[in-house]
Design goal:
single chain, about 300 residues, alpha+beta, T-fold, 2 domains, 8-stranded antiparallel sheet, 3-stranded antiparallel sheet, 15 strands, about 25% strand
């Protein structure tokens, strides 16, 4: 997703694989590669807390606790509280307990198939963010068949923590790209903004739809083109409707949200995609310091800010 220019001074960059995606961190005003190593270590630590598939992670332990309270880290509490906030804001259209449903879909298999309808109906009955009960540093799922999946918000939270760390080490010019969640620290050292490219949905050559000037903000995109398959001429994608278990059909192929904090952009991009352009635009305009770009299935684009299409 990201397309950035280079500063006069050669930046230092590190690439890793976490959260099932390639991540890249680039620092423009330091050559201390130990900072990059520390960022990658932070990614590893947070993955070991938030992953629902890594045995021993906070989320794994909550999901397998059989309604018993589980003591977790302060970061896990903070992220769950943020996830519950956006679950409430969206009236359950975004729901952090989507795991029973999402685990039935296989978007990356060579021969994709639809989930069994009866299994999907059963899974939907256990999706309810209100079953997540937080008391101090403990979390309990009141439904023993409910499970948490923070995939729609965790990368944004982690990007924010990496930014905090780098700023604490006096970094003022950097780009954090966690698999499409782009968060900038300042702009380029020469005083100009970073330019972040937005992919054209479903373009085989990953062409750029437009570029956005960004200084110190987060740019997060969600779309039906990210993880999907086509079966019997119908497109199935990974943004699921918690009330039906099937992919949402909002007439959109992509949404990009610009915010100060990446955790907000992460959740809002998914929520706005599910809401559709009209209701999504209404939500964005009700929030301070938030902008969004909506790409329709027919390729037309609308946004809350001026833009130039490629």
């Amino acid at each position: 997703m990201v397309n950035t220019g280079c500063a006069k001074k050669e930046p230092v960059t590190s690439t890793g694989f976490f959260f099932d995606t390639v991540i890249t961190i680039t620092i423009y005003d330091s050559v201390d590669e130990n900072l990059l190593d520390s960022c990658m270590e932070l990614c590893s630590q947070y993955e070991s807390l938030f992953s629902r598939t890594i045995e021993g992670s906070d989320i794994y332990r909550i999901n397998h606790a059989q309604k018993k309270p589980v003591r977790v880290s302060p970061d896990t509490i903070s992220l769950l509280q943020k996830g519950i906030f956006y679950s409430e804001l969206s009236e359950g259209l975004f729901d952090i307990t989507i795991a029973p449903v999402s685990s039935l879909w296989r978007f990356t298999e060579d021969t994709p198939a639809l989930p069994d309808n009866a299994e999907l109906k059963e899974a939907v009955s256990h999706v309810d963010y209100q079953s997540v009960l937080i008391s101090g540093d403990t979390v309990t799922l009141s439904d023993e068949n409910a499970q948490i999946d923070l995939g729609g918000i965790a990368k944004g939270y982690i990007a924010d923590r990496i930014k905090e760390y780098l700023i604490s080490r006096n970094i003022r010019h950097a780009i954090i790209n966690l698999g499409g969640n782009v968060l900038t620290i300042g702009g380029r050292p020469d005083g100009t903004p970073f330019r972040v490219g937005i992919r054209k949905p479903f373009d085989e050559k990953n062409a750029i739809l437009t570029s956005i000037d960004v200084t110190g903000r987060s740019v997060v995109s969600s779309g039906s083109y990210e993880r999907c398959f086509t079966l019997n001429d119908t497109l199935y994608h990974h943004i699921l409707n918690p009330s039906t278990g099937y992919p949402v059909d909002s007439g959109l192929s992509g949404v990009t949200v610009l915010t100060e904090h990446s955790v907000d952009g992460d959740a809002l991009s998914t929520i706005c995609f599910a809401l559709g352009e009209e209701k999504g635009m209404e939500l964005i305009r009700s929030l301070d310091g938030v902008d969004a770009l909506f790409v329709h299935m027919d390729g037309t684009v609308s946004a809350t800010f001026p833009l130039t299409l490629k």
